[in-house]
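Hi team, as promised in this morning's meeting, here are the two structures we talked about. I've kept the exact order from the run log so nobody has to guess. The first one is mostly here for context; it's the second one we should focus on when we meet again. Sequence first, then the predicted structure tokens.
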Amino acid sequence: MVTSTRSSGDARLDRRHPEDIRSQHRSEAEEERAADPRSPSEVHEYRIDLERLRFSPYFGRLSAVTQVVPQSGVGPIMHNRLTHSLKVSAVARVIAANLAARLAQHRTATTTGGADPDPVGQVLERLGGCDTIVSQSAAHAHDLGHPPFGHLGERTLDRLARTELGLPEGFEGNAQTFRILTSLDTLGREFPGLNLTAAVRASVLKYPWTRGRWAGVSLDRLPAAERPRGVGLDPAGGAVKFSAYALEAEEMADVLAAFPAIGEHRQTVDCAIMDLADDIAYAVHDLDDFVRAGVLQQAEVAGEFHSWLAAAGDLREADLADLRARWREPGVSLELLRRDTLLKDPWVADSEVFADAVRRVSADLGDDLLMRPYDGGGDAERKVSAFTRRWIERLRSSVVVEADPHVRSGHVRLDRRGWHEVLVLKFVHARFVLDLPDIALAQRGQQRVLEDLVRGFDAWLSDPVDASRAPRRLLEWVEHTTEATIALSRRRPDLLLGPADEAGLRRQGRSRAILDYVASMTDQQALTTHASLTRG
């Protein structure tokens, strides 16, 4: 790796002690030392980071945050954010290990003058290398910033922040993750954050910019195919997806400076591995849950795929406005996906490869896995597990490394075939699960819970008589965040959005603390706290 440097600055010294390091099994350590080109001290530093993440209460909290489908009594337990993160970590480890082996081969060839250097290894060497433990750490950490109720909670908190709390930056799960790692989690020490290495901190920066960095950038100024993912959908507000709030923007810049070969607005190699592993785990493992919960109906899924395949030619000639008006008709949503993909990602999108992906997913999912309803028996479970193993291995074998990737891609990505297959698998989630009436009904209630919590805590802190009795952690965060916001306004006013007067800055500091507090809850904590806060 390029660096294992920890946070710099007088207040960010490394305060580690031996008792903080959990020992590994000797055989595992010996295996890695035998096959690993890194120094023992470098391996040790990254292991410490991984253990710090595993022992973080924010990581343990993910076991009680819903992934997509809530727990049910049918078959094995449904995925939650913790089990999802562990599976992302497993996928990331395999991808990183394969690439690290290529890097090691390249280094050996370069040193001995034997075989020709591996071109993949050459690219990885120039970009700073890759590391299995750093990639695992990134996977462990990538969902730490998810609030209660997952993406629904993320959207709700973002809306409340921008429309009611006077916080133009809003809320974003990726930026919240970086904030947890660098500011909120403390290990019980007298300094902010987990004091992770630069490599691990950089590995969670999926969208390495702030929201304000892209404010005012419209589709007229930057076409969809020329902008990074998550940019351009909200010209007035800035980037929809971003990895750091203004309060952590300077630390993000310091971290990225440790990787001089990584271009602006690019992920590090380990971050790209984590991002890819997340896509694979979401596309495949979450389908396990949908099958077991019985929310995927064979007739609907097969009907969508068969209708598009049968009428692909006619659908390609259809008017776009007409297609959007009848999107619920079988086959139409797939055609809209194909067109949207060609518009946004012409660097990789291909209609014929898209059709091949539809055929494969249709045969493997709609015409095989879903042919018989899941009944919880051994045969049904073996069939689900076989589907998962087959697809995970297929997508792992599609990984490629690119020295100069497209602005909407990363240095480590799927080849054209795998990219389209993940696209179609994720379409199944969006079309046949997320729009289900039962899920929509539950989400309306969850949204109301978060709205009441944010408004309730905001009103409590505004109460001149009772504000001092608000939760202690919330009061401390209000104090610290307000001080940090005012200090940033003096040091780097260009980073802040919104009013710059003292009242406006204090409002932003308090609002960010409220969001930090609510976002740190589990699903059940949110429901319980809501019941207490709103009980008449």
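And here is the second protein, the one for discussion:
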Amino acid sequence: MSEKDNHTPDIEIGTAAEMEEVMRKYDRESATRIWEGKPKQVVRCVMAMFSLYCIWSTLFSTADLPIRLTAFLGLITVMGYLTYPARKNHVRPNSMPWYDIILMLLGAGSFFYYCINYTALVKVITSASKINPGTEGAIDGAWFYVILGVVGILCLAELCRRCVGLPILCVVGVLLVYTFASGQNLGRVIYTLFYGTSGILATPVQVCAKFIAVFIIFGAFLERTGISNFFIDLANSLAGSASGGPAKVAVISSALCGMVSGSSVGNTVTTGSVTIPMMKRTGYKGEFAAAVEAAASTGGQIMPPIMGAAAFLMAEYMDTTYANVAMKAILPALLYFTGIFLSVHLEARRLDLKGIPRDQLPKFRILIRSIYLLLPLVVLVWLVSTGARTLQFSASLAILLAIAVSLPGIFWDSHAQKQEGAVGHAVKETGTMILGSLEAGGRGCITVAVACSMAGIVAGCITVTGLASRLVNTVVNVSGMIPNKSLALFAALFLTMLCCIVLGMGVPTTANYCIMASTCAPILIQLGIGKIPAHFFVFYFGIVADITPPVALAAYAGSAIAKSNPMKTGINATKLAIAAFIVPYIFAFNPAMLLIDTGIFDIVLIVVTSLAGLFGVAVALNGYLWRKINPLLRVFIALGGLCMMFPGIPTDVVGFALVGGVVAWQKLGGKNAPA
């Protein structure tokens, strides 16, 4: 703990107030109400009790699924309105307008009524459905339940506007209009969206309540063990002294921290407050420094083993295990971060940047003493990968271990600060840490749960109207007009990419993936792409929306810290994350990159050639190796890199010739040319 203070470089770190201001501006989850005094303690207790309920429910509850889900959403609604105001710029301490109280009571009351009266409600709906025989369900004759469903949906939609944003609501609104325009009656729609398991209570919310909530709580505990500081110090120790070291530190630390936090913007601000000033002092431009942090932080969501929250949904949609999803994500994640690392290194060489002096860096041997902080993560990965325990049990055990590994640091700090009463002070700090972690876990569940519920409405509208089959038939017919099958498939992939990026702008990755998994993934599967590659394809492009202009929230948050041009930062971040735009096309055409139907030799060959190909693409984008590269050679080495990244011996040979030729030309020609 104290060693960090002795060795961390003397850098200008933004104040807590500045960080909070950036988060409130670019991250809706941070634009919250201000509670002080006793009201604050009450709200904290509500959040903490919710976290305890989630852990108990996933481990021990035997109630019917709709009962557990409606109780979960009712509590989410209460916490949501207690946390998020109608407008983030008009917040007074301990103030909650009367209309927010009414919305909270109506919204939560709708779900709690469903929960408490589930058995009687099922009988009423079954009886009412006889009005419209032959359908899945209709409640035209039970107007109280129609109104109850409408109120519940509208209150949840308003909460979504506050904590998630308008983009996903626009999608929901368009689909609702299409649903009613297609001839569906109100009773049928409300039954599907509110009471059935094809709408709000569909797969996204089921996975959220069963798996994601517990893992979010685990992430909150893990962050309070000091593991983020450990990751940053470890990255500094490994790469801080290298050429352009601070940028490489940002890549490594953001990859490690991002897989735990699950928030691109949050990770950008948290680690960026340290790494971005370091990069600027080293000599990187503000736009580049902020872009490095944004790209690396966004990529944390594809970094196994945690992968944010979407990995659990992917496992459910692809009908496979969570461990299998994490395993298949390893190689693409490796390529993503290697691409950023190579670009950073080439930029450092071009600018002739130095690293941080070793005497200002944390000592690796000292950091080894804190390696016990990784124990919860290691145990979690082992339990999940071996299938020894359920995901819920594994996460719960990891939470207990996170509490255990935090105790040495708490007792050490207490002893250092107070010679008398150190034990009592440590016990108090431990209780505060546990309460704070439970509170943060509950608060973190709000946005994900609301986004998942809206994604369920999208899926419900698609189901009740049969829109999915129409979309599939339309794309298949359009693709059939292109005579070359490869070109037709590429066109379908390109259109899907655009849809994912557009729908993902300002939308949490989890919700974006749910929407694309319901709409675009079936199209790709119908076109002949396997289920796993199709879902990974939409997942990747949903993620890069956070760094793709014009709505690149992670890049804009980084630019606020670096005080750089937001649009230039977004463009730089897109260039740095070029692997995320290339790799999905590769595993769509050849799933070997996802470790599907391949052997050890093929895997090694893919890794080597893909890394060499990424080097070629990075050199082409940077325009510098040993000296400046002319435009024609940049085109050649870019083509060579792309050829090597596409699995296959012929393309590897062509790519090796192009990349090797340009490298040799640069090396030999550089002997007689100035640097």
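Starting points for discussion:
The mean pLDDT is 80.
Residues 16 and 606 are 44 Å apart (CA to CA).
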